[in-house]
Each structure stands twice: as structure tokens, then as C-alpha cells.
Amino acid sequence: MLLLGFVLISGVGCSASDLMDLTVSAKSPVAFNAWQSRFASRASSEERRQFETALQEVRYKIMADKEATGSDPISDALRKKVHERSVREVLQLGVELRLLRLLKEHAALHAVMRQNAMLQTREGDKASEDYLVQFHQKQLARLEKLEAEIEAADRELAPLMDVTQRSLLPTTDGESDKGPLMLRRSKWRA
How confident is the model at residue 175 (pLDDT cuts 50, 70, 90)? Predict the structure, then answer.
């Protein structure tokens, strides 16, 4: 009975808010591996999945920006971006990066679809006409899927930003701490 009371008082187990406030230690590969092991022992499988998804988005951005190439340099760049951030901030950064990636893909696909809508086939060329219709349907399905993913990411981002009250993406001239204009709610629909 006394042992059970000690376990409860000592805080074994962690509430979700406690986990969100943990500071990531990623100064070195060893420190980051040790921190991840401690985090994994306290987090649920869903929380671990969310954290890993956020890290993957940071990796994608590093590779897309050609900030680093190769496994070790990418890992080094990733650690620099997450070191001394809270778990909440890492999750938010990952969601913001995913949202930015999806919005760029949406804009590019929408532009291609507008161009493709102007294509015309020769009169009587049923095969080409059928191909264009099928191609348009595939693009439309991808656009709808992207829109659903964008809306899901936006819903995921809202409670994180309610706490941090700012975007974690680097801003450029003319952008506020709310993040790039492209990320602001209701600005992405064509």
C-alpha cells in the first residue's frame, strides 16, 4: 500500500500535457537517442507515432531545401531543429511543415488542372477525349484527397497554435508570427 502511494505521488506515468511540455534533448546523436528512449517509455503508441511523423516532416523539409544530403547530415540538421524545443513545438513544427507541403502541392495541381482544362482533342478522336476525361478524374480525385489532408492538418494544428500562439516556421519579410500567409486559415482554397 505504501509503495502504491509512492508511485502515485512520484508521478510515474505522465499526463498528456506533461508530455507536451517535455523539452527535447538532441545536442548529440547519443543524447537524442537517450531522450527518445525516455519519451517512448512515457508516451502512448499514438503519441510516439505523432512525434515520429513530425520528425519525418522536418526531414522532408531538410531534403527538399537541400539543406543536407545523406543520412548523418540530415540527422544532424534534424537534431538542430528540434533541440531544446518542447514536444508540443516539435509536433506543431511537423504539422506546419506538412500543411505547407500540402498547400504547395495543392496549388501546383490546381494550376496544372487549369492548364489541362484548356486542352482540346481533334474532332472525332474519341480515344484522346476519353483519356483526357479519365486523366481529369484522377487529378480531381487527387485534389479532393489533398483538400481532405489539408483540412485534417489544419484541425491538428489549431489546438497546438492555441497554446503556442505563434507559428514556428521561419518568417520572411512581410509575414507575421502567425506564419506564412499560405498557412492562414481559409487562404488556400482556390
Answer: low
